[in-house]
Amino acid sequence: VWENCLSFIKDNIQEQAYKTWFEPIQSVDLTDNALSIQVPSKFFYEWLEEHYVKLLKVALTKELGPNAKLLYKIKMENSYNNKLPFTHQIPSNDRQAVKPQEVDVPIVQKDPELKNPFIIPGIRNINIDSQLNSNYSFDNFLEGDSNRLARSAGMAVANKPGGTSFNPLLIFGGVGLGKTHLAHAIGVEIKEKHPEKTVLYISAEIFTQQYIESVKKNTRNDFIHFYQLIDVLIIDDVQFLSGKSGTQDVFFHIFNHLHQNGKQVILTSDKAPVDMQDIEQRLLSRFKWGLSAELHQPDYETRISILKNILYRDGVEMPEEIIEYVAKNIKSNVRELEGAIISLIAQSSFNKKEVTIELAKQVVEKFVKNIKREISVDYIQKIISDYFQLDIETLQSKTRKRDVVQARQLAMFFAKKYTKNSLASIGSQIGNRDHATVLHACKTVDNLVSTDKQFRKFVDDLNKKLSQ
Ligand code: ADP
Ligand code: MG
């Protein structure tokens, strides 16, 4: 049966393609109308599914009738993929899930000959899974003043990876402002425009886990070697590396190698390089080599278009008034903005009725609370030091100067109010003080608020800033 299929296929595609993609296939089993074929790798299987699935279907149907089924067995998995704890990151609606009903669960066999766990010997162009989420594209990353610089820098990098002065490109900004989305979009676009490039998206956390694993297993060199083969390396949330000097060290070497060879590095972080703590100076200085682009909080118009885009995508209509209400009240976090509108969509379709402003209020309130919970002690210190025009070191220092003391006490007061951290943990993050100092600060602020008008204004202003 397979022979017949092959000769049909051979007549219908170019010889080179036939040689590359069909000669290596072996048929292994035929039961009823299900033919099993063995392919050399997962990548191979994906390629077949992407490019030749129609042809295969026609060929099989001719041989086995309309209920023909094709099962794939994967002979030797690219061992990199099955070693690393990656799969959980891939969203189920990504292209990985091609026709699951027709595909046998891949049988992954490790090649015992393969000594190096990360690369396939003799192959320069490694086929790795990029870990990119194609739902995060440039198309649905709506543009506004808040992200224009970062977005267009990302586009430039996608057009010419490694060929712009934006290397590394560092995208930074607060939670839920689109760093991960933009990082994926750049990768997805590069894959599209430069399919020959090896792109890898990885969070700094998984990178760290892999590194630690490689040290345990004595494969540190392989780890480094693997990363040095990548053309476009995207590392998300590099602030996670803070305090992890071993991982920073290895990343430094990988970074230098890639950079020297004209490879593109893209990083995201929740802080600007100047504000990153416990990251080695030599790494920070590398981060500043290229471009640091900030994602700001989106303005009202952008928030409206983000909401409308979701409604449009889901084919749902909602009164203008409701959209405006949501956009007016959720300002500082696109994830929460999306969450609120999705929750409203769900409730309206569940109750089969129009969303009322009352319902919108309830939902929005819930999401605004979420945002408050995400404020960190670091963030509070930044807001306070900006407000009083001090730098964070001064705020945390031992100085007893009255204005600094007040700012410091306010930082402690707001940290207690807006975060779930213990007094001890707040103290340790604000210049290494103990819990009694934090408690004292909170009482002092309470007192001053009721006695000092100027001070009350500080507190009101800061409250506004922090609850935005
Ligand atoms: P971060 O990594 O900065 O915490 P994410 O990239 O996870 O934020 O973004 C949070 C959510 O907001 C995602 O669902 C993302 O698609 C969405 N989002 C952020 N910015 C935009 C934008 N400009 N246009 C459309 N969606 C956006
Ligand atoms: Mg993120």
UniProtKB/TrEMBL annotation:
Keywords per UniProt: ATP-binding, Cytoplasm, DNA replication, DNA-binding, Lipid-binding, Nucleotide-binding
One GO term (biological process): DNA replication initiation
Gene it is expressed from: dnaA
Gene Ontology molecular functions: ATP binding; DNA replication origin binding; lipid binding
Annotated protein name in UniProt: Chromosomal replication initiator protein DnaA
Organism encoding this protein: Flavobacterium haoranii
Chromosomal replication initiator DnaA C-terminal domain boundaries: 376-445
Region of interest (Domain IV, binds dsDNA), residue spans: 349-468
Gene3D superfamilies: 1.10.1750.10, 1.10.8.60, 3.30.300.180, P-loop containing nucleotide triphosphate hydrolases
Assembly with partners or alone: Oligomerizes as a right-handed, spiral filament on DNA at oriC.
